[in-house]
What we know:
Blueprint: H1 13-23, E1 26-32, E2 37-40, H2 42-47, H3 52-57, H4 61-65, H5 70-86, E3 89-97, E4 103-114, E5 120-129, H6 131-134, H7 151-169, H8 172-201
Antiparallel strand pairs: 1-2, 1-5, 3-4, 4-5
Amino acid sequence: MAAFKPLDGQTTSETFQSARDALDVVGRWEWDAGLDRVRADASVALVHNVDPIEAEEGVPLGRYFDSIHADDRARIEDLIRRSAREGTPYLAEHRVTSADGETRWVLVRGRFIGDHAGRPRSGSGILLDITRMRMFEDLADAAAPLLETSPLEVAADHAIAAMYAISALRDPELKVQADALLRTLGRKLALQEVRDRHRHMN
């Protein structure tokens, strides 16, 4: 796993959690493969130990991969390539080292667009911090992506796809509305995930 590098000397578990509580557990991200720049909100940045100001401007994808647990990294790379090649939604759980130095679990849902050769060209989606949910489960079974598709998941996939078109329009009002929709869908997906896991445990 990549070594933990605090954003600054004041970053602690308490300040990290306060920031996340204020921002909600849902984060948004967009990736331009041509420029190799990921633009993300502060929630995604903090979970991946990336400076939120730099994340807003855009940093290389490798900065985010540095925080992914070494045992999960190859699997995530394969899933990204498959999503771009097949044009299918991207859905995965994996571990990261966050800005407070802790190992956390995240659920990432999005879509990657490939070029004519199937190489990733761009991507966007949402991220949920599911660490507390995973505390009550067998972590050894955590790495497998979820395969069942619900109407809520379909709605999230369409909302992510719509974000591509809205971004091209450069309409601030539409972007705010689309962001709000994605965050709402993300929260509902998290609640659905909790219900599904409790049902499978019983």
